[in-house]
Amino acid sequence: MPERGSIIESHPAEFFRGLVQDAMRAQGVTAGGETEFYLVQLLHHHLRMRAELLDRPLALEFLEASSAGGVERFQRLKLVGDTALFVAGLFADCLERSVVQPTYYIELGALAYRRVAGIGSPRVREMFAELAMQFLDLVRVLGEISNRELFASDRDTLRIYRRWLLTRGAQDASLLVARGLIPGEPTGSRH
Which of 29, 111, 112, 121 has CB atoms 3.0–4.6 Å from 137's, for a disulfide? Predict the structure, then answer.
């Protein structure tokens, strides 16, 4: 695999496209070109993430977006889905230590994309329906990027295990086995 330059040395969209393609291969996720492009744009857009992104509970944003009309509804639901995907994919580890668990973001994000899939042209509907159906896979893809490129550390094994608990991804299970761990459900009892 050729060496990838840093984001500083390349155009951000090209940098993120390489990350997304590598992560999709590593996680065994196949998606249409539009979905890949969408993930690249999502990462590129969040390069300059707003500080107030999660000031309000995402569920409130979802409820308000659902009651909006027309273009505003589309844009606000899309933002809820995008935010949920971004946060659950890249920051699942941080969420594990918070009151709001990753499953909240996954369920809310997929629901928002399903609602967006009911709005707009047939092509837009199809793309958002695919995003909703593959939401968990896309969380794994962004998680792969997070682990490999953004937040690599000695805690990778625990991070991979936590992501496996959430998504049950085969690639994560393989990584755990390669590190000498057999993935399984925690029992709740201590010996």
Answer: 29
The 10s digit of each residue's pLDDT in 97-153 is: 677 788 999 999 999 999 999 998 899 999 999 999 999 999 999 998 887 766 655
* Number of domains, the chain: 1
Opening angle at CA 87, ends 132 and 38, nearest 5: 50
Measured between alpha carbons, how far is 19 from 143 in angstroms, rounded to an integer?
11
**Contact assessment for residue 19 and residue 27, using Cβ atoms and an 8 Å cutoff:** no
Range of the domain at 42: 12-49+56-178
Place of tokens 């935010």: 83
Does residue 7 belong to any structural domain of this protein?
Answer: no
Does residue 147 form part of some domain?
yes
What is d(CA 65, CA 119) in angstroms, rounded to the nearest whole number? 13
pLDDT score of 109: 97
Residue 175, C-beta contacts closer than 8 angstroms, at least 6 positions apart = 160
Give this prediction's pTM.
Answer: 0.75
3-class state of residue 10 by DSSP: coil
